[in-house]
Amino acid sequence: MTRPMLEAESVSVAYGKVEAVRGISLTVEPGRLVTVLGANGAGKTTLLNALMGVLPARGAIRFEGRDLTRLPVEARVAQGLSLIPERRELFSTMTVEDNLKLGAFRFRGTGGGGDIGEMYRLFPRLAERRRQHAGTLSGGERQMLAMARALMGRPRLLMLDEPSLGLAPLIVAEVMRTVARLRDEGVAILLVEQNARAALQIADHGYVLDGGTVVLEGDSRTLQTDARVVETYLGVL
Ligand code: ATP
């Protein structure tokens, strides 16, 4: 078996007395696309923030065997982790191209970082819009820019928080195809989604959260036909 790239072991996170994530264990292997599904409030965003170091967590978080649990966000970024939050957090009054340049900020002065030409190859729409302010982009284009900007930091594990949120179905399909392509190009992906149908179509493996714990886990094909998943997360879509 391949050694996991990311390993979370019994991770718990509390907001005061309320435990939002309770003893979650998961792994992401190199080059794999793993999805975390669950309804509103299941604990998905809290889990991602704990893995990235935005929130303190109990338990253990390891990346390529190294313990990250107590490391700050910057140190985790330096190890190769990247998180695209639900809000996407672009600089609206800056151009698409300047947003991309900022994505390579941690390599400033070293000549490292992603290549803007490479991003335009992966995301042709961004090339057409390179001089436009990010604030003028459509929802789908903003998500593409958020992904391209994250890639400029050359992450080895990309975590995405609900990239489908607020997008029309056709655009969701396009965003998901892009996420799958990034996996095919070698970036390991942890994809948090409420849109279970879209996520399971591209994922290799999935975890279902409810009430802050993992209630179901399996390869995506098994999850797509699991009666509980179909009834709770796929049936209504
Ligand atoms: P969503 O899809 O709405 O983002 P989620 O699965 O990501 O849902 P979380 O946002 O992680 O869920 O929330 C998990 C639980 O923690 C919820 O009950 C939520 O109300 C609670 N919670 C989230 N953020 C805070 C906070 N800052 N303070 C207190 N409780 C919080």
TrEMBL record:
A Pfam short name: ABC_tran
Keyword Ligase included in the entry's annotation: no
Residue span, ABC transporter domain: 6-236
CDD domains: ABC_TM1139_LivF_branched (cd03224)
SMART domains (UniProt xref): AAA (SM00382)
GO molecular function, one term: ATP binding
Source organism superkingdom: Bacteria
UniProt name for this protein: ABC transporter ATP-binding protein
Keywords for this protein: Amino-acid transport, ATP-binding, Nucleotide-binding, Transport
Family in the record: Belongs to the ABC transporter superfamily.
An annotated GO BP: L-amino acid transport
